[in-house]
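Repro case for the chain-ordering regression, as requested:
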Amino acid sequence: MTNNKYELTKQWLEKHTFLKDIGEMNLSIIQILEKIEIEPLQLPDLDLYKETFGKGIPVLQNEELQKALVNPVEQVLLTLTKVLSETQVPAAFQKSCKAVQFYAENNSIAEILGYVLRQETNQVHTFCEKNSLDEKFTNFSIWLSISHVISQNALPIKLWVEGKGWERNYCPVCGSLPVLAQLKQANDGHQRHLICGSCHSSWTYKRIGCAYCGNEELNQLRLYETAAEPDMRIDVCEDCHTYIKTYIKEGQEAIYLADWATLHLDLLAEKEGFSKKGSSLLIN
Ligand SMILES: [Zn+2]
Ligand SMILES: [Zn+2]
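-- result from build under test --
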């Protein structure tokens, strides 16, 4: 699967040369993460969270789980920043990368990980300033590490979350907003899945309506389709002026659910006056 992701990304870049810089960085990241082995995650009994989850509290907002993530995330972050800073990357990026690496080598990441997971943006800002860390890169690299740990160890969390009827517009695992959507075949037509911009989990959501403000007025919801990317469309909401890219097929998730791979569609939507939400990309 990972090789497949690497190969698919390479083929995509051959056809989308304007994505070369960001694409090559992502190819490096795919290769680095592929080699990182993670210690098994010691999960507490997830049923302890049944009640709070039912009230809309995402799984990773629980303190015990945040604690359980510290070591595995730190492990990934250390290798990721070390190897990434040794690859051919722009000087500014390398500097940010080395700063996070240096911090993680000399301190526990428990404090900053907690701020990031709880989305305490003011705290993240102050912390980064105090420790001379680039805020965007810190968020980016920590989420990438969390997402890698989750993708390797998330099965129990995924299974636990599934079928619990989470129909909210934020991620049931971490609480972030979605950055992309996908329409998948279901028994009664199509079902919409939202994809988290931070931990990359996905969950089902109502098919009609804005994924951000919930607006269901059909005359305020529009679809943009482009000849260049027929497998993806842009759903816009004229009430809150946001958009979400939606992959309308299945099988090429490695590309279409990687936000950066369709940045040209973001440019189109932004040109029309709509803004992006839920993104953890460095360049937004
Ligand atoms: Zn998430
Ligand atoms: Zn809206």
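Ordering looks correct now. The first helix runs from residue 2 to 15.
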